[in-house]
TrEMBL record:
InterPro entries with a match to the protein in the record: MATE_fam, MATE_MepA-like, MATE_MepA_subfamily, MdtK-like
Domain of life: Bacteria
GO BP terms, alphabetized: response to antibiotic
GO cellular component, one term: plasma membrane
Residues annotated as transmembrane: 12-35, 47-74, 95-117, 137-160, 167-188, 194-217, 238-263, 283-310, 322-345, 365-389, 401-422, 428-446
Membrane topology designation: Multi-pass membrane protein
Protein location: Cell membrane
Name of protein: Multidrug export protein MepA
GO molecular function: antiporter activity; xenobiotic transmembrane transporter activity
Length: 462
């Protein structure tokens, strides 16, 4: 069966566009999972703002849960792409089999841990006595169905890396549509409130999971889900390769949690909950920048990995160039949207003047330096796509530590409402550091691969 895209021979510009755009759209739709929930919750009569703050506390924990699927999915898919570039179908199939098992085990363990420790976690991560009941309700239901989220998101990367970008996008679309349709039914029609939003999300993730698994167990993809061939060394290599994107997403979640804790600490009773509500709205918009951009850079990783495995280094460099151009265009558009149309976005959540003013201010501040952020994403995910994980891990960790430090210092120097300036300051600095590392190290990475392949060819000829 012919694939949608040939990663080794198709025009690089067209290939990047055909893989990155569907992935970007899929992640835009994926953002709707959380945003639509929050929009409907924010409009629940009388309790909307308080319930929104409670669900906002759950948001980074939910992202943290799904980041484990990224750990395995993005860890395994570049390795699988390299194997496919080497024309090693058996090795590619073994990688997928190991990753599928790892995701199932991770999902079960994570579900049990979250259910057991959710109460102290929610209180530690910024819930107040007022917002805790809403956070607890949402988290309990979501955790019970988290296996579907982990499998659908994680295994979807193995659809993308085989060139089926449209199928991967459709798996997200069917879940998002299901969620959008069911949210008002459960929240308002069945009068379930926050619980209804969580139930709708879990059902939507079940639908996405079924779509992904039916495709990967079917006859269409060249590499399908199989069982057996489990190998600890291979599993460790997958975890090492995926460590950087996992750290990015996990620490992003941790930083949002830390932000909520900072807002509660400096805001105090009452005002702290209001600040958390505004941060929830602003972070919802920022997800519309980071998740689609991560979708683009993640979708082009198989292109880089395949051509790296095939030792076509000119195509690797070309793929990185076109990925960066696409990300810069996207972030430029989103910057305009943030500064011109943010009021329309905020009104979806609330019409309260206080919440609107502070949320719009936060959105405009946080998006000031998303153009440099595009450079950071392209470079870090490019290193991951080539399995050069030590560079991506260092760059990712540096940015998160810098952001955490800025988040702690800015409220002391400039006041709590100016804590949002930590984001653009860190985006600019970390992008500069990433460029320096790229210029110093990338040529050496590609040259060593060429030398290794040349040596193997000489040995086989001898």
């Amino acid at each position: 069966m012919r694939r949608e895209n040939n990663l080794g021979t198709d025009s690089m510009a067209g290939l990047v566009v055909r893989l990155a755009i569907p992935a970007m759209l899929a992640q835009f739709i994926n953002v709707l999972y959380s945003i639509v929930d929050r929009i409907f919750i924010g409009n629940i009569p009388e309790i909307g703002a308080t319930a929104l703050a409670g669900v906002g506390i759950c948001g980074p924990i939910v992202t943290l849960i799904t980041s484990f699927s990224m750990w395995v999915g993005i860890g395994g898919s570049p390795l699988m792409s390299i194997k496919m570039g080497e024309n090693d179908r058996k090795g590619a199939s073994q990688i997928m089999a190991n990753c599928f098992l790892m995701m199932i085990v991770m999902a079960v363990v994570i579900t049990l841990l979250v259910i057991l420790f959710k109460q102290p976690l929610l209180m530690l991560f910024g819930a107040s006595e007022v917002t805790f009941p809403y956070a607890n309700t949402y988290m309990t239901i979501y955790a019970a169905g988290s296996i579907f989220a982990i499998l659908s998101m994680g295994m979807n990367t193995f659809i993308i890396c085989q060139g089926y970008s449209k199928i991967a996008m459709m798996s997200v679309v069917v879940g998002a549509i299901t969620n959008i349709v069911l949210d008002p039914v459960f929240i308002f029609g069945c009068n379930m409130g926050v619980a209804g939003a969580a139930v709708a999300t879990v059902i939507a993730q079940m639908v996405s999971c079924a779509f992904v698994l039916l495709f990967l167990f079917g006859r269409r993809p060249p590499v399908r889900i199989t069982f057996g061939g489990y190998n600890r060394t291979l599993m460790f290599r997958v975890l090492l390769t995926g460590l950087s994107p996992f750290i990015i997403v996990a620490l992003d979640s941790g930083l949002i949690i830390a932000m909520n804790m900072v807002l509660q600490h400096y805001g105090g009773p009452g005002y702290g909950d209001q600040l958390v509500t505004c941060n929830t709205i602003a972070q919802s918009f920022f997800l519309m920048v980071t998740l689609p951009m991560g979708g683009m850079t993640g979708a082009t990783q198989p292109i880089l990995g395949f051509n790296y495995g095939a030792c076509q280094m000119d195509r690797v460099r070309s793929g990185q160039k076109y990925t960066l151009i696409l990300c810069l265009i996207f972030t430029a558009v989103m910057m305009v949207v943030a500064h011109v149309f943010s009021s329309y976005f905020v009104r979806l959540f609330t019409n309260d003047a206080f919440y609107m003013e502070l949320s719009m201010k936060a959105i405009k501040i946080m998006t000031l330096m998303i153009l440099p952020l595009a450079v950071q994403y392209t470079i870090v995910d490019g290193f991951t796509g080539l399995s050069a994980v030590k560079y991506s891990i260092v760059l990712s960790t540096f940015r998160k530590l810098l952001y955490f430090a800025a988040m702690m210092i800015f409220p002391l120097l400039f006041g709590i409402e100016n804590v949002f300036f930590a984001e653009p300051a860190v985006d600019l600095i970390s992008a500069g550091v990433s460029v320096l590392v790229y210029l110093k190290c990338m040529s050496g990475i590609l040259r060593r691969r060429e030398e290794k392949v040349a040596l193997e060819l000489r040995k086989s000829a001898a």
